[in-house]
Design brief:
By secondary structure, the protein is an all-alpha fold. Helices cover about 85% and strands about 0% of the residues. The chain contains two helices and no strands.
C-alpha cells in the first residue's frame, strides 16, 4: 500500500466516522427537542385543567415552536 492509498483510506474512514457522529448528534437533538415539546404540552394540559386557557395556549405555542425549530447537525 502506498502512502497515498493509505491517506485516502484513512480520509474515507474519518469521513464515515464524522457522518456517524453527526447522525447520532442529530438523533439525540431530535429526542431532546421532542421531550421538551412534550413537557410544554404537559404544562398546557395542567393549566387547561385549572381553566387557565390563556396560559395553556401559551405553553402549546411553546411546544409548537420547539418542534418547528431546526435541528443541529443536519444529516
Amino acid at each position: 500500500m502506498t502512502l497515498e492509498e493509505f491517506r485516502l483510506r484513512e480520509q474515507e474512514r474519518m469521513r464515515r466516522q464524522v457522518e456517524r457522529v453527526r447522525a447520532e448528534l442529530h438523533e439525540q437533538a431530535r429526542r431532546i427537542q421532542e421531550e421538551d415539546a412534550e413537557a410544554w404540552e404537559e404544562l398546557a394540559a395542567q393549566f387547561r385543567e385549572q381553566g387557565k386557557e390563556e396560559s395553556a395556549a401559551h405553553f402549546e405555542q411553546l411546544a409548537a415552536r420547539e418542534r418547528a425549530m431546526p435541528l443541529p447537525h443536519p444529516i
